[in-house]
Design brief:
The complex is a heterodimer of chains A (326) and B (266).
Chain A (H helix, E strand, L loop, with lengths): L3 E4 L3 H11 L1 E4 L7 E2 L15 H4 L3 E10 L2 E5 L7 E6 L1 H14 L6 H7 L2 E6 L23 E5 L3 E6 L2 H8 L4 E2 L2 H17 L9 H6 L5 H8 L5 H5 L6 E7 L5 E7 L19 H20 L9 H5 L6 H8 L1
Parallel strand pairs in A: 2-6, 6-7, 7-8
Antiparallel strand pairs in A: 1-9, 1-10, 2-3, 4-5, 4-12, 8-9, 11-12
Helix pairs in contact in A: 8-10
Chain B lengths: L5 E12 L2 E7 L9 E6 L3 E6 L2 E3 L2 E7 L3 H7 L6 E8 L13 E6 L3 H13 L7 E7 L11 H5 L3 E6 L9 E2 L2 H6 L6 E5 L2 H13 L7 E4 L15 E2 L2 E2 H4 L2 E3 H5 L13
Parallel strand pairs in B: 8-9, 8-12, 9-10, 10-11, 12-13
Antiparallel strand pairs in B: 1-2, 1-7, 2-6, 3-4, 3-7, 5-6, 13-16, 14-15
The chains are: A alpha+beta (326), B alpha/beta (266).
Chain lengths: 326, 266
Amino acid sequence: MQPKKIGKDALAALFDRIKDEYEVYAPAGREFFERVTSFHEVELSRRATAKNIFFPPEQSLFKFRRMEGGYDIKMDGMKRKVALFGARACDTHAINMMDRYMMGDIEDEYYANIRKNCIIVGITCNEPFKSCFCTYFGNFEPCFYDIWLTDIGEHYIIEAGSRAGENIINSIQCEDASREDMEMKMKVIERAKEKMSIPSKKFDASAFSERYHSNIWHEIMERCICCGKCNFACPTCHCFDVFDTINLDGSGERKRKWDSCHFYDYARTSAENFRKERISRVKYRVYDKFVFSMERYGMQACVGCGRCYDVCPAEIDLREIIEVMA
Amino acid sequence: MSFIPYLTKIEKIVQECNDTKTFWVEYSNSFNPGQFVEISVLGYGEAPISIAGGYENGIMLSIRAAGNVTKKLHNMKEGDVVGIRGPFGKPWPVNDVMGENLLMIAGGIGLAPLRPCIMHAIENRNDYGEVLLLYGARSPVQMLYRREYEEWRKSIDMDIIVDRGDESWKGKIGLVTELMDEVDFKGYAFVCGPPVMMKFVSMKLLEMGFDKSKIFLSLERNMKCGMGICGHCAIAGKYVCLDGPVFSLEDAMTMLEKPVELEGVL
């Protein structure tokens, strides 16, 4: 489908069209995507993490109820049609990584139920945030989308990346984008890319491996307080804890909730705490983003979004670590 | 694969030693020696437990009362309902060892994951060369499966040592590595026990001339999901629930984040 353009005031119509068919989630004032029902709630200039839509901070795995001779177990039927409205390119790369974690050889059905029925309506970043460094990993362009918007001044360029996206675009009022419009889009992209502050050295995972025992870790470890905020803000951190809750009548629920590899108890068993030292937990997270994920999934788990730096009370910046390590 | 456990009954419970009970649980999924299951007590949670053996109706699980779920299990009785998921993980490479000598070294409750391997060696005794089991326990009352030793000894060699004896104990006192000093053995070694025991046993095996690729360790981690998703059992880029719990010393030693069990092993 040829790229189209729509007037800025037509975006509300696009939103309404999508809302008719999907539950819409968008950046709307917080650090995470939220349910929105009106276009006025959407803050397109804000970026937010979307992983909570597929992988909620706390989620029921199943409910159980005592019965004669045992239990009755019920899993929530949760297939839902969901739209992310206002995702950024880094979000698409993060979702690509999450798909590998959650829908690889073994499928996490809770994640898949939402992910497989989800459309992504994204927007090009005209103005990078101060923590952004996606271009460093070549992640400025989205890796997949259903509809992609680029602000070129008076209009948005609107492009379809799937059949579902095409159908939506065909159902709203828009015109073909001209050659000048597309040139403007390229200009917007080039300008944004130039503004990004990225590490000066080329990324080299093997250099990371070689410096595993380097002293640099001691300096970083001194600053990290293992609060876990980076894990929660990170669009590819996917660790969870599993626990039960129980009611007075013996019924209850098995749930999972986000966990952090920075927490003291994370690798503890009845015999031993396998990452007792803070330094081992700090290292684990960084290596899991840059090295281990590459070995196992053929892809870096860090997409260069910088959200971990935004929330870090110790102002630990992965770019700083890359600068020293790579 | 799913988070929904298969609900089943505890058929039999035996007090194994002061803090450990063995549960016979009805379960029809077949397993290989060294694999583990997740056992659930609904309302309390789930815990990863190695399979200690099979019987016609199911599996045996030897469980130490250590945490929330396992303490609750110790208060349950025959006929009570539990949930099982699994089996999970890579087993002991019993087929690779065929025709070779096999040394099994267990510390404490680490005998449980090795028990199916012992049974396998006994049932297929002619497939193996020398088979020797060295077992170290903290004290005579903390030894697992004492009622079975006599039967085992008809097919395989076994030696036992305890950290602390008691009035009735006439056997050896010391560490399991001291038993290793007494033997001259070449072939494969399967090891399971507390982290510090695995460290010193690995060092001793290398000293004895065992090949790194012929030493296998069963590592214990906090396997929450068993499916390589929750992250808790990761060591470097490996998931103990999928890639382990049995690793060759060679593979374990080359992990960037060296397993705690091997700290100091060169």
